[in-house]
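Justification of computing resources. Each target in the renewal requires a structure prediction run like the one illustrated here; the chain below, 415 residues long, is used simply to show the kind of job we budget for.
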Amino acid sequence: MIKIFLTAAIFFLMQASAQAYGIFWYDMSLDIPMWKKVVIFPLAYSNDKNNWLISYDENSLLYWENKHLMERFEKKIKNMHTVRLAPGIKEKDEILVDKFSVLLNPYPTEKARAEAVFEQTGADMYLFPRFKEKRIQTDISPRTEFNVQLSSWTEITGSPNSDGTYDKRTWTEHHVIPEKEIHLHIMQLEFEGYDTENANKVLLFTDTRREYGVDDKHQFRSITKYIRKDFGELKSGKNKGKDKAGTINIGFKNLTLPPNVGSDEYSLKGAYFGMKFEAMDKLKGVSVITDATSDKDLNYYITGNVTEWKLIPTWHPPKVTTTSELIESKETKWKDSKGKEHTMHTKKYKDKIVDHYAYWSFSWNVRATFYLVDAKTGQVVVSESGNTFDDKPMDAYRKIMRTFCEQVNKYFKAK
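Resulting structure tokens:
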């Protein structure tokens, strides 16, 4: 008889379900899986890009963050050599931040920086990791009073007479949750990648954590785990989608997006990438043409209209729940008529009040409609609308796109 509500468990489940997709994009026209070397710059803040966050103190958080990011790439991504520009890694007894310190200078153009990176390291690309947000939000969980119904009882098992619950008593207790400061840890990381040949932007990734009861290391580990995952899948070729040649060519036209997405490069490019990747991954028996400059004739194209892409914060006031607490337990031996020994267990329980302080939870709402259009007639042959909520915007967005792909597969199967 357990009546318990664990706020911490809810946060854990929310975080666990939020691990699917950060906002990710890469230039699909490039053969990034064939690239062999990447330079990882030190951390910085997005609004102060040339002020590198470097610490030589091996016990500092900043030193650990730069080191941990490097190790994510170095140990987990196959066929990719990494060059680290933050201190702490030696190559042939030479500290790389000293060897390549010229790369940390400001450059007049990205082209100049790209040329310097290639000249110094021979790398195919370089990556900027940046904090978009790193702060603690302090709120007040208010003092709140409750009248709580509690119970106590005794459970007997193994009795020579009859098992059961006895001596049940119920009463109401006045209970106060005191005012308390609560601390919401917020961290958003952005990653921006460039090629060294043309200084073109080739990769973007961003992800955010909003959590209670954690530290910076926990959040940093969580986010960098998933940039490493996405980058690793890119290197392995998984993010290119499945090679499914078909007689039907399907391409893409523009999405209509709300202003907050259209004005944010990460969300804008992530929306196009998510649409194309889900089509490549889920559509059956067709050729998905992601290159807008392709000379292949399209039989159909996919377009869409995203009308909502919004973070919804919800304030949860303090609450109480009860949990059953064992307060006394004893065993009594007895023998039946045949002399066989048995054990009777007597356990006394009493409800205990559990406080749950106020907290914020967050959900992304994405509303969108996708269309499959006959390229010759302009007629919409399949449409799918969705209004979804999830811990991450890309999870919500891709759910709608996956459902759309299911409808497209049914359409072609029926033809």
